[in-house]
Each structure stands twice: as C-alpha cells, then as structure tokens.
Amino acid sequence: QQQVKQSPQSLIVQKGGISIINCAYENTAFDYFPWYQQFPGKGPALLIAIRPDVSEKKEGRFTISFNKSAKQFSLHIMDSQPGDSATYFCAARGLTGNTPLVFGKGTRLSVIA
Amino acid sequence: SQTIHQWPATLVQPVGSPLSLECTVEGTSNPNLYWYRQAAGRGLQLLFYSVGIGQISSEVPQNLSASRPQDRQFILSSKKLLLSDSGFYLCAWSVATLNIQYFGAGTRLSVL
Predict the structure, then answer these.
(1) How far is it, in rounded angstroms, from Cα B28 to Cα B18?
(2) pLDDT in tens, B23-53
(3) How close is the nearest chain B Cα to the Cα of A15, in Å?
C-alpha cells in the first residue's frame, strides 16, 4: 500500500514529441505528489509537484495530470528536447511530515534528434 | 537559501576498509535528513533517515550505519566495506513539516 508504481521503465521519444510517464498509488493518505529529474552523475532535483485537489499543473513544457479517483498521476513533457534526457522519478508524500517520500522506480527518458 | 553539501564526490575503497561519508545542510534548522543508495541505472533505495539529533531510522539491514552528531550533519559509515556496497550515495534534507526532499550532488563509491 506504500508503493508508487511507475511506468514505463524506459522511454525513447523523438525531438519535439510528447513524453508521458505514468504513476499509480494505493494509499489514499498521500497528499502531495512531486516529480524529480535526475541527470547522470547528479542528485535528483525537484521538477514539479501537485496536490490531489488539483487535476492539472503546468510549468513551462512540463505538466502533471492527476486523477484522484483512479489514483493515478502522470508527467507530460511537451516539445521534448535532447536536454530533457534524464531519469524521472515520481513520488508521494504521506500526511505525517516525518515520513519519507515514497518513490517510484524511475523512468529513463532518451530524447533523440 | 538552503544548501546541502556532500563529500567526497568520488571514492574508491578496497573491500574490508572503513567508510565515512559526510553530509551537511546550511540555511535551515532541525531538518529531516536522509541517506539513499542508487545502483547503476536503478531507483532510489532509502537507507536511513533522521528527524533529529541522535534519532536514526534504518530502512534496510546491512553493514552500513548512520549518525547525526549535530543538527545539520549526517554521516554514513561502515566498518568493513563489501563489494555490494558500491553505488551512488545521495544525501537529502527536508523541512520536517513539508517533507519535500532536496538532494545533494551524491558520492560515487566504488569498492574494489
């Protein structure tokens, strides 16, 4: 119940295309859903996040779509660029502030020209 | 602003040698602190987290240990490294009430 399931494991997208990464969860106590971006050899960096009372959040080319009833959320990268090539992790936060984030297993995105 | 420092960036150690990785956070007080390990091409494995000085929660039984001697200092240690300890070690911090984690740059550990 504490898991966040992320798919696909890897993704190849043409430059200019849309990259879509999906995550699903079971625990309805999760109250905050961040996405992290990690470049090779670097630590993950917070990219964008959403609360369950919002169905969509957009920041530039990055959009989170949230479906509370289905307990699913997804990251959409519009006009994907080679510089977006990285590993993306979804995560979920429980109501207890001291409980660590629950991370998905990650998606390795490659954007090819 | 808050910053997190993690060192060294790269470390090569022989099997059986001790380990000490240090992480410090600046610009905040009483942060939650975390140690993660990431195998090549894999996900984030939570090793330890701490909500205060001397308070350590272990998520994975192993030959690693963690200590928090000061409010903003988190240390990962081992008495005798194994080959399987190789990996990318990441320290992270969060404000306790918000629990949005911010990661350091990581330490690449190779045990040979």
Answers:
(1) 30
(2) 999 999 999 999 999 988 789 999 999 999 9
(3) 23
